[in-house]
Amino acid sequence: MTIATPAGAATETRTPVLQARRLVKTFGRVVGLDGVSLELYPGEVLAVIGDNGAGKSTLIKCLTGAYVPDEGEIFLDGQPVHFKRPQDARAAGIETVYQNLAVSPALDVASNLFLGREVRMKGILGSVFRVVDQKGMRKQAREQLTSLGISTLQDVTVPVENLSGGQRQAVAVARAAAFGSKVVVLDEPTAALGVRESNQVLELVKRLRDQGIPVILISHNMPHVFEVADRIHIQRLGKRAATITPESHSMTDAVAIMTGASQA
Questions:
Q1: Residue 1 lies inside a defined structural domain of this protein
Q2: Matching InterPro entries, A to Z (predicted)?
Q3: Which domain holds residue 214?
Q4: Quick one: pLDDT band at residue 9, thresholds 50, 70, 90?
């Protein structure tokens, strides 16, 4: 296995925000992960690619608490962590946006951004009567969307069911960015989107990186990966086949490594 690092050896001396070492996960006789390591550094987009069954989803689920690895270690800011459920990862600052988005169509944009983390009114209204601060949440929602440069969602009171696919994706990503203080994980964020909406989501990924939030991007779309990724982690048959960069390898090279037609 060859690991290419971006911009020389500078990456070698930095502490990863999120790191996995030799993760193993089995399902009976099926090996999902076979000693996989991964490093995510500050302010970068790390793409994770691989054919179906390569272990991409298993790896991400281990990193975000959906699965508990059988062996191996996970570190956050250099400290060992043990996630037993997704809530543990979220509490540590790792937010994940899955393909199904997990948004509530009947609720408006602001309510979806604060879903499960509703802000209550100050004083007795919030502490005793548990009244939600709708005005405050809508104000914060507008500020969050503006900070991410999301101009297609001007009205945060619109129900999500009235939004396009790209706009719904933007809501889910904005929610992750609002609470993902350490890492944002995006699982196929442009799947089933048109060209224009896909481009908007990719711009959103770049803005997250520009704000210093490291992103793990899982995608089958090679042009999208090579457009936004700083480094590319390639999974094959439950192992890390290589970590490359768009500068060191072409899309053809990446596909060849992913399919086993070539070694990195």
A1: no
A2: AAA+_ATPase, ABC_carbohydrate_import_ATPase, ABC_transporter-like_ATP-bd, ABC_transporter-like_CS, P-loop_NTPase
A3: 38-259
A4: very low
Each residue's pLDDT tens digit, 37-91: 999 999 999 999 999 999 999 999 999 999 999 999 999 999 999 999 999 999 9
Check pLDDT > 50 for residue 2.
no
First-to-last alpha carbon distance for the chain, in angstroms, is: 7
Instruction: Domain count for the chain, please give it.
Output: 1
153-to-156, 160, 189 alpha-carbon distances in Å: 7, 10, 18
Alpha helices in the chain (DSSP H): 10-13, 56-63, 86-91, 109-113, 124-127, 134-147, 165-179, 195-210, 222-228, 251-259
Q: Is the pTM of this model over 0.85?
A: yes
Neighbour count for residue 203 (Cβ, 10 Å): 14
pLDDT computed for residue 12 by the predictor = 52
Decide: helix, strand or coil at residue 90. helix
Query: Is residue 26 domain-resident?
Result: no
Contact 131, 121 (CB under 8 A): yes
* Domain contains 147: yes
Q: What is the CATH number of the domain that holds 69?
A: 3.40.50.300
Complete DSSP assignment for 128-186: TS--B-HHHHHHHHHHHHHHTT--S---TTSBGGGS-HHHHHHHHHHHHHHH-SSEEEE
**Residue holding tokens 């890492």?**
183
pLDDT tens digit sequence for 150-183: 877 879 999 999 998 888 888 888 888 888 789 9
Are β-strands 45-50 and 231-236 bridged in parallel, bridged antiparallel, or unpaired? parallel
Residues 6+ apart with CB under 8 A from 260: 236, 237, 241
- Provide the percentage of residues in the chain whose pLDDT is more than 70: 94
